[in-house]
Hints:
Chain A is mainly alpha-helical. Chain A is built from 18 helices and four strands. In chain A, α8 packs across α13. The mean pLDDT of chain A is about 90. By secondary structure, chain B is mainly beta. The radius of gyration of chain B is 32 Å and the shape is globular. The interface between A and B is large, with 111 and 116 residues.
Amino acid sequence: MKYIQSKMLLKKVTLAFFSITFVGLTFQGCADLDPDPQEFNLPPGQFTTLDEFEAGVIGSYSLLYSAARMTTFFAPAWAGDDMTTHVLSNKADFREFDQRNVTNTNGRLLNNWNQIYNTINSLNSNLERGKSLGDFDVDKDRLDRLRGEVYFLRGLLFHHLTRVHSKIPIPITEIPDPEERPASQVEVYERIEADFLKAEELLPVIYPDTNPGAPRPNSGSARAMLARLYLDWAGFPVKDATKFADAATSAKQVMDNATAHGFELEEDLEDLWKVENRFNSESVFTISYCSPCTDLANRKYGITGLPADIGSGWAETFAEVRFFEDFPEGARKEATFRTDLNWQNSTDHKGPIFKKIVGPPGDLPANAFATDRNDFMMRYAEVLLIFAEASGQTGTPSAEAWEALNMVRRRAESLPADTPDPSVDITSGDIVELAITERKWELAGEYLRWYDLVRTETMQEALSQRDPQTTTDAGGNLLRVINPIIGSLGTENYFSPIPQAAIDISPALGE
Amino acid sequence: MKKQFTGLLRTGVLIALFALFLGVQQTMAQQTVTGTVTDETDSGIPGANVLIEGTTTGVVTDLDGKFSISASPEDVLLISYIGYQTQKIPVGSQTSINVKLGTDTEFLDEVVVIGYGTAKKSDLTGAVSQVTTESFERQPITRVEEALQGRAAGVSVSSSGAPGSGAKVRIRGANSITGGNDPLIVVDGVIGVDLRTINPNDIASMEVLKDASALAIYGSRASNGVLLVSTKKGSGKPKLILDQFTTFSVVPNKVPLLSSGEFAQQKNEERLNAGSVPPFSDEEIAALNANPIDYQDIIFQTGVSNNTQLSLSGGDDKVKYFLSGNFVDQEGIIITTGYERFSLRSNVNAQLNEKLKLGLNLFGSRETNTNNLDNFNRFKGSSILRTLTWDPTLPVRDENGEYILTSASFANNGFNPIANLERSNREREADRLNANINIGYEIAEGLNYNMIVGLSTLNQNTESYIVNGDQSSNVGSNHTNLSYSNFKNTSHQVSNILNWKKTFDKHSIDLTGVYEFQGNRSTINNYFTTDVILPGFFLGDNADPGRESFFNDGGVSSIQSYLGRAQYNFESKLYLTASMRIDESSKFKKGSRTGYFPSAAVAYTMDDMAFVKDGKVLSSLKLRAGWGQVGNENINPTAGLARTNDGRVFSIDGANQLPGSVLSQVANPDLTWETTTQTNVGVDFGVLSNRLTLSVDYYVKNTTDLLLATQLPRTNINKFLNVGEVQNQGIDLSLSAAVIDKEDFTWDANFNMSFIQNEVLELFDEQEQILGNTISVDGTGNRLNVIQVGEPLGQFYGLTFLGTWKSDEDLPNGISPGDAKYEGFVDENNIYTNTLSAIGNGTPTLTWGFNQNLTYKNWDFNIFIQAGHNFDVYNQVAGAINGGTGDYRDNLSPITGEEWTPENETETPRRNAANLLNSSRYVEKGDFARLSNVSVGYTFDNPIKGIENLKLYASGQNLALITGYSGYDPEVTSSPTGGNSDVASGINIGAFPNPRTYTVGLKVGF
């Protein structure tokens, strides 16, 4: 009896449970376990319109901005004989480059590595997501432009990074392969070449509706970058001399179509570094900045180039004293350095101040570190000098090659670039040496000199010349050499190691 | 059968929807019944309820326990009083009924809330710690975490001294790297409440569920432990209590620094040694010596805080109420910081009839937090760190009263932190409303249905105007940030609980079934602009449209659960509990969505055994063991989905920004719960008639399928994974003693202690370590923390400091004698590379608390001591004070004479030698013991008519700290600027110090 009672009770309990659950489900509704993910978020898939593709490309540019906005992007260039940094303070990472003592824990190296690959990945993602757009009825020219831009930026970034590390992974898929190993230097160059060639094919002669200076690349920008690539390829470490001819033809091709691409030498070199001139025809590819926009300012210029006691500077970027002393006097020296400032007697850092960094007097606001200045990733002057140098390497330089060199020399003296002037023109001698020397002065402080030292294997020669200096302070004391070289100047120490933290994440990089 | 079902269904519908309107009417022939209700000592019980069963008619006994009621002969009187067994007496022909009520032993045996029900403390099979009001009511507290701190074994609380900031509560350590380690908070049955929102005065008790057998009923959200909070319910005659206290807070100690004059003197010497001109004249130094500028005196203040609490409670058998209001106004010990909270609670419970009861709890609050320093730019250290490294030769303002914003040559290279604080104003206002309804219906004897419906909303509005710099609109100075943000969160919960209790002879059964669902929805809208010239929140209209940005986001999630629990005991000797919870969460895709969380536990009481029964040594002994699995789903609802970041912008023309979009997260459809499997064994002893009780628990818990936010290699693209394994094992010990228990004099002591050992057993892809997200404040970007296999979560990462390089050593390139020497190696080019490794850990492995309450006549005393051992602090502040890196240009630490000189080659690096903050030089032992509370109170009984009692009290908190640590307080370290605080604990980038406080207050009962 008792048994039956409890059985009945059990039944009742079960019934009650189910009925209440039923009531719950009917009247209270149950949980929505599949909420619409699009309510707050558009999940990525294939682009279906060019506007989406465009937003993706702008997204890549925004990552490029993050990578390039600080001096970190160019930190390896502190190794050049043109630049140095503060002896103390938080500049240890820069000093490692400056003193040729680069460790695999260098924070700037790691940051650069991460930011550049992050941007490359976004470019790969855009190509992947945009690949079916051709099947839609879209503006074919606009599609080509956007795709060309993506290839251009990818080539540019691979090139930027291989100049630092030589062997690097060259991912081209949307989802990166964690097992990917670094490619050989030639494989890397071939990838960059393919990207620039594809970019050249897809990009227009001039990108519509843009400012001067190619803030969006055109086919001439791609060809100019190819010229730079071939010059590197012909030099250390691959030393494939056949590439000099490619460099020369590429540079010539850009020169021949310069007007169509919108490229020409700026009349006055000093004007280049003014904020008002940040979009100018001399730049063959410009990364643009916008300080009034939300966090789109350029943080490489202004007070980063001043010592603490002159304009409350951050004492990051200075010229080498010996480099300054050797610099030929004239308009170009005035355009390169702030000779009006009393840097010799700074109590913080006694070193020449780059006008290219801090701007002409009064041009940038006091205390400015976040500026509107743009980055000229390559200037037309460099195209001319590549042509001169590469021509010299491939045989007897033509008159056009000498003219290209002389155009830069004339402008350096504030003379009209296109008008021959016997007082500065040269038409004989070793045009290769002359062009490399011209680059040394012309491109000083533009984070480029070091790459020349690498490809021409002249690090030892150049960096051994920092002493003796002749400049004295007000007390008549000879200035000390700042940040003396402590690492090897041999070719085994030309390239920077892959950051340890990157290897920790992808051990294949260390193999 | 079908008919029965429909009938029941109808009943169910009625219960659910018309509960409020149910009532039973009765009319009968009446007679007057009088009588007295007494207790076992024959004293009258005033305020006892005398109710006619099945009606709402009833009376309350008078001061002598007498009553008089009209009733019919067929009526049954229900006579009840809290703490006593209810008696039923049929009226019949009686006109005089005297009742003696026996004490309710079930009531005396403490009742513990165990989640979806209660249990007698003696019946527990799992590891549950209880913290009741009595243990913390003698310490003036304004937030709940303070009440938990040091009072429950296995619970660690690390607070920040900042007014209104949350504290980090961990139950038996941290399991998760990405999933979050905050315990689940359940208030009156409603899951997922923010602990900060609760007014501590409203709390009746808190139960900490620690082992898996106790936790498993909360399934997928329980792996970090569960804190059950029960709020007060009223009873008896109306009671009005006013409690008001005022607190004065000060910074307990200062960090030693060079004085203004000493610093100037130092700079002169250095410049002279370098062949330069001394920057300070003798007169200037004399002036600085006469009137030193101490920036610690400038940033710290005496904070005055007020706390006012009013509560009204009471009730009879039908309606019980507890109403309370609370106002907290706190001033921080750092200038401009503050916190305010208004809160209101109404808990009403009604017994509508014999079978149906109803409860409604409403809670509303408004919190305002001003200038929370964590929201100021901490990239180069907090405002406190900036203050400590600021140039002591510069006053805050110049002779014209203008701020001196930068120091051209010395010390910190940033902007004056005092000027930044004084000109900034950031207020966060959070409005909360929580409501929950509890309906209980007794379906049959022992069979009860309960429904809990909870709703909560949070509206949080932040208006922020933060100045860091010159406040101009100069392009490039970019130092005034103005933002508004609105965060709105609403959530709901419906729990249906069915419970059946039955005792057959020696067997007791308690079965619980639950169906529950919960949903949550949040949105955030954000506006940001920069370089607004005029100060204040509301001048965003002046902003340059080109510098404005907007951000909107949101999320929605839901979870549906089924739970079954069976509890059985045999002769109150052997206890068995088993449960199974099934959770389905929208955060995971179909197929990975359903989680099963089982548990089982057994306990055995040996009170009957001869060696216990004889009472010679032991008075009680109980053994417990349990096993179970719980989960963690504490991640963003979109963690498993692919996402883009559409907030990226770029400007092609240098003037207008264009919208851009980047892939930010790839999908992981297999993403699922993190699972923690825990085994617990425990033993409870009672000695001397249980005047001394001791509980010891040992546990081991392994967390697998850790939710880990990883990034695809070489990208910022997130991918959430389930990987790896973390283990925590430890011992919790809790000892309570009624040392003295006399009428005039009582002395209770409670001691608890926890040992914990944490170890990462496995990461993923055979990785040995993952670098953490906490970045050095010196601008180098160095990572300060690392997660390594075989080590506890969150190791400090850095260089091992070996002293100095000596002049007679083979010096590598670029190194001078007296430079700091770190572990490393020299390569063939004579370049010295420092090696990085784990150099410390910031989580204590041993913590204890010792709480004592004494009463003597009308006096009461409380002393509370609390301590943590075996942990380190990564003192980045000390590093920054040593200068030579980042923004910290100069060494401000006092001259000890221990610094390396060519004559005396010590192990302390040369003054102003290059300095790296990420080194073991700045790792310090954090061990401490703190006198957390001392209080004394005196109660006047019936001091004047109308006032039942009046208590005056005074107390001090954090009065003494014993530690070898050189900073303000080893227990407060900074919340990290990025990532999980459990993998960055113990890293100090300038945390808000724990204040020392002095409180005076009064409590009046009417």
